[in-house]
Specification:
Length: 290
């Protein structure tokens, strides 16, 4: 196998069609199938702003029919559940599903830059104001909480109001996705100091999760802390992949469904790239560029 866009999309299409199959349509089936829709969504994330022009010129053999932008966006917004299923399918189909070392962090997903936008946005009541410490700036939008392996393969993720506490959001994610943690034993979860709490660590222990985080100045050095120096930048590099190569902050969503599917689309593209690079034994696993 080779690392090119057509090989990646073909491999993904076969994987989706074999494992998930096609829906049972009661009426006339759509010209663009669900499997093709997911592949087009990945192509859009990897190819950037001019993806449709590129697809109409170079990918007509794979997609004989491509809908207009408005029709495509409508189909994509309705496919959030399907995209989530495909992400989980790719994770479970890779070696990274067996990795019992996870990393968690949150990153801003801005949704507006001006006060008038905030007032009239359909996201009002869901999005909110937050502060990004790494860039020393305030933003209006959401926070993406991502639990992934050191290689960057996404295990769990969620969007939340930036005013919510990090521990509160992670606890909710683990409660909803309790079955994921149950399939692993002795999980080591690496985080920053924002997730520090004795009560929270006891709560994590109920899921078989041990929290590894930096110690505060008033604390003694925690067990396993020296290894943090080697891995604490991994989650930042994953966020940089989502933002720098997959344009997470330029998602263009203007509604709840629009933002959710555009964020999921980028996580899907990263998961697909990692899954495919692992299959092809690429030297850098988390590389959409490859």
């Amino acid at each position: 196998m080779t690392n090119d866009i057509e090989t990646l999309l073909t491999t993904l299409y076969v994987k989706i069609d074999d494992e998930l199959g096609g829906p049972q349509w009661t009426g006339r089936p759509p010209v663009l199938t669900d499997s093709e829709l997911v592949c087009v969504a990945v192509a859009q994330s990897l190819l950037g702003a001019h993806w449709l022009r590129y697809a109409r010129k170079h990918l007509t053999g794979m997609f004989p029919y491509l809908p207009q932008q408005s029709g495509y966006n409508k189909r994509l917004r309705a496919a959030l559940g399907l995209v989530k299923r495909v992400i989980r399918m790719l994770v479970k189909s890779s070696d990274f599903w067996l990795d019992d070392c996870w990393i968690v962090d949150s990153t801003p997903v801005p949704c507006g830059m001006s006060r008038p936008t905030v007032k009239r946005s359909d996201l009002a009541g869901w999005a909110g104001y937050g502060y990004c410490a790494s860039h020393s700036r305030f933003f209006w939008g959401l926070r993406l909480y991502l639990v992934c392996t050191p290689a960057g393969m996404p295990i769990l993720w969620a969007l939340a109001d930036p005013k919510l506490g990090e521990r509160e959001v992670l606890a909710a994610i683990l409660e909803v996705e309790a079955g994921v943690a149950a399939e692993h034993e002795a999980i080591l979860l690496i985080s920053d100091k924002g997730f520090a709490s004795k009560d929270f660590e006891k709560r994590l222990a109920n899921y078989g999760i041990t929290l590894l985080r930096p110690s505060f100045k008033r604390e003694k050095q925690r067990y396993g802390e020296p290894m943090l120096k080697k891995v604490q930048q991994l989650i930042e590099s994953v966020n940089d992949t989502l933002k720098g190569q997959l344009d997470l902050e330029d998602h263009g969503g203007r509604s709840y469904a629009g933002v959710a599917i555009r964020v999921a689309q980028r996580i899907l593209a990263m998961a697909t790239a990692i899954w495919h690079n692992n299959l092809t034994a690429a030297p850098v696993t988390r590389s959409p560029i490859a």
